[in-house]
Structure of NADH dehydrogenase subunit 9:
Amino acid sequence: MFRSLIVYATSLTRLLPVQTFQVFGHEIVINVSKKYLLATLMFLHHHSNSNYQLLTSISGVDYPERDERFEIVYDLLNIRSNSRIRIKTQTDEINPLPSVVSIYPSANWWEREIWDLFGVFFSGHPDLRRLLTDYGFEGHPLRKDFPLSGYFELRYDEDQRVVVCEPIELTQEFRTFDFHIPWSQDLKKIT
């Protein structure tokens, strides 16, 4: 099985503009440039030997130290042979990725989620708007440089009987911790 996956992945490198490929267990992982992403996914969907008809997920990973900091991962499934393939591509905050909703309609939700949480723009998407955060939300919360506490806090004001949105004030004194461990005295007596 492993040998046949390597043979198949090698044949894909002859047909597609694959940068690198790896085989992990029973799954092929292919890295492609973002300019060839749409053509690669179209081939894998329509070619009779590939026949990856189902997009099972799209996920994003943030690597802030890289020039192209976002890695977008497409997981595909061939239902007939129960084989999986993973396509990876990289982009930054400025350059968009092509939307794959025309090939895989289920990509609509995941592309909106990645736009909302990472800020990766998908050109040609039919309805790219926030999905999990509020429409007035500033920033993208799954980026590594997003502050853990956020930029604003919401609280309910009893006097006004409304939810109030205020900038966060982190006025907190340094805490002093007592690192005294009661049983450490017993250890000193033993030694």
